[in-house]
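Hi L.,

You mentioned the student needs an example of a multi-chain input paired with its predicted structure. This one should do, with 754 residues in total across all chains.
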Amino acid sequence: MSGHNCVAIATDTRLSTQLMTIDTSFQRVFKVTDSCLMGVSGLGTDVQTLQLTLRSFYFSNSLMKFKLNLYRLKEGRDMKADVFSKLVATSLYEHRFGPYFVSPVIAGLDKVGENEYSPVICTYDSIGYREHNGQFEVAGTGAELLYGVCETFYKPNLEPEQLFEVISNSLLSALDRDSLSGWGAKVYLLTPTELTVRSLKTRQD
Amino acid sequence: MWMGSKEHYDRGVNTFSPEGRIYQIEYAIEAIKFGSTAIGIRTNEGVVLGVEKKLPSKLMEPAKSEKLVEIDRHCGCAMSGIVGDARILVDHARVEAQNHRFNYAEAMSIEQITEAVSDLAINFGEGYEGTKRKPMARPYGVALLIAGVDDNGPQLYQTDPSGTFLQWQARAIGSGGDTAMTYIKESYHSNMTLAEAEKLVMQTLKSVMEEKIQSDNVEISIVRTDTKRLETRTQEYVNNIISTLA
Amino acid sequence: MDNENFGLAKSFSSAPVLSISPHTNFSQKEQTDIEHELNEQVGTTGEYVSEGFCFKLAPGQDQIGFMRSLKEKAPKLTDFAKGTTTLAFEFQEGVLVAVDARATMGAFISSNNVRKVIEINDFLLGTMAGGAADCMFWEKYVAMQCRVYELRNGEKPSVAMASMMLASIMRQYRGQGLSMGTMFTGSDKTGASLYYIDNDATRVKGRLFAVGSGGTFAYGVLDTNYRYDMSLDEAVNLGIRAITSATFKDSASGGVVRIYHVTNHGKWNLIHDAIDVSELHYQFEQNKGHTGRGNEGKPNKYL
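Structure written out for the whole complex:
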């Protein structure tokens, strides 16, 4: 979700195989650069596959990390969030005929002027179709449930604390109706100067 | 063919006589007049049903609730005539009443219960070609007093073998029926209390019964307007009323 | 036709008055007769008549095939409410029944406040797992039959008899797509007793059952802590504990716990109407010195 000079990603922390809860403190959101976050949702065993893939995005010599580093070496600067979001699309399409069953969300801030930042908010299908409207994007098992509440609560140009309230309440509302999500939630709030991570107390059923 | 005598028209239940009568139904109504007396009185506080239980021999055990039975918890039934026939009708009424609760989650109205009984009562004859279920071949030789409380308040109905049903403020059927009706007519008024009605029922039974009235040869039940529940009066209660009778 | 159609699941008014037992129609007939009769009924009236009920059928000959293709083409229509944790066990003071309250349609939580204990009448309880409508309809039907029995015979039927009525119905409709897994419990002259009945017409009398997607998790807690000589308080706490654990592990179970106690004296009591399982979870975990978030022993790592 985007605000005025801020973006946020909210996610639950459950990992499961079908109906059975496996882990209730599972990490789904990763920092790509200082100005870009990536959250990924998927289902069941694919989440585990994805976890490895994602960890390697950030920690190891994975495809994404390789591409990020190569870009930095060639260009001499960090990749902008907008650019990264397009890179993810093409990278997912590389697996067009054997895709990861994931739907990532990207939230980032790109500097456009003195103290003025443009939010980058987008989501993808599993083979890299990029969807973005600049306001908010949703993904995962509770996606349909999130639309209604996000459309109701969202307003453009929210300040960071307001954005935190809106995104948290939207997520909590959807968690109440999605049986496959919940068991804890985290909100990642990114501003030009800092990244704040907060835990939300949620239902445990 | 020899015509004009009723003997030829009273054999089948599906033939009218030239005067427009179905004799078997009329005979069935006659059968009720041999039955023991049953009385019902409606008041604003509730309905009372009372029956006489004939004990042909001292050796016979006084059966419980033979002629005064529960149809549903808000509705009772007193009968006069062939008790075996009544049991079929009562069973039908019970099933219909429970079926109504099942489908609508509410109590069946007393009128509807009575109508269900009357529908079955008139459904006699030879049956139709190809149907599996054989209906009763003759009319049911019984009259019922159906009393209860529903959304329309306390109510008293009477059915007879012709499928007719009528609503009454007070009604007596059976061998002492006519006498009892005259008796009740003198004392009944629409503002009676339930206790007065109970007493009137007992007093009337006492006056029409051949035997001496005792707690084991009469039975009364009431349905109160406020509780809408059928209650059967205990022998002690009945004894108490008997002791106050004139 | 001698069977009247009132547009409702009604009309045993036209059935023989004396048939209580619902299994008379099928068991005495050859399979071919049944099929023949079924086809005949479908062909002429579009209704499936059995034990006096009129169930509307789809136009066509192959009913089971129709349901199957419906399931493929319109899964939402035929995916009835499923996913549950229900448990019941006998102990010295009767039978304890504990259930969750979640209803799901796929992953969507359609309610967290369902009443899965069906109060059949003042001495019988049934739990609800599988198709909510199937459980509700047939258990209410048994309630009606019990009442008719009581009116006819002047005494209440035994729990064994009432449970047999339900099992007989399940046998009659076996293979026709009913979905029901119920713990049928009640109290009669002999005290409280407990049966498990499902849509395969299984009917088992037993001490301890847990039914539904969360049942396996509930068994874990139940089997560890169950004793026959528990007090009512202990039994209630065990029920709460087992349901809470199951709702934690099983995503299709959740909401609130409801506890019923069937006494040995012919009636049942509602002990707890709604305790939030989430609150219970935090409470239990904090009693152990945990936070309840499940991150004990893990590094506090955010990125």
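You could point out the following to them. Confidence is low (pLDDT under 50) at residues 1-51 of chain C. Chain C has two domains: 16-78, 86-287.

Best wishes,
N.
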